[in-house]
Amino acid sequence: MATSCTSKEKQKSAEKESKEQEVEQIILAAENFVGASDAKNITTGGADQTYMSSNAEGWILLDVDVPIAGRYAIEISLSSDHADTTTVWIEDHADNKDGRNYNITGNMELIGATDGFVKLHKDGSPLNQGGHKVKVHFDKAVKIAWIKLTLIKAHELTPMTLTQKTEGTAWKVVWSDDFDGTELDTTKWTYDIGNWGWGNNELQYYTKNRKENTRLEDGALVIEARKGDMGEKWTSARITTRGKVSFLYGKIEFRAKTPTNKGNWAAGWTLGDDYVDEKSWPYCGEIDIMESVGYEMDDDTGNGIAHASVHCGAYYFKLGNQPTSVIDVLDMYNEYHTYAIEWTPEGIKAFVDDQHYFTYSDTNSELAWPFSRPQNIILNLAMGGGWGGAMGMDESVSSQKLVIDYVRVYELQ
Question: What domains lie within the chain, and their CATH numbers?
Answer without folding.
Answer: 21-154 (2.60.120.260), 161-412 (2.60.120.200)
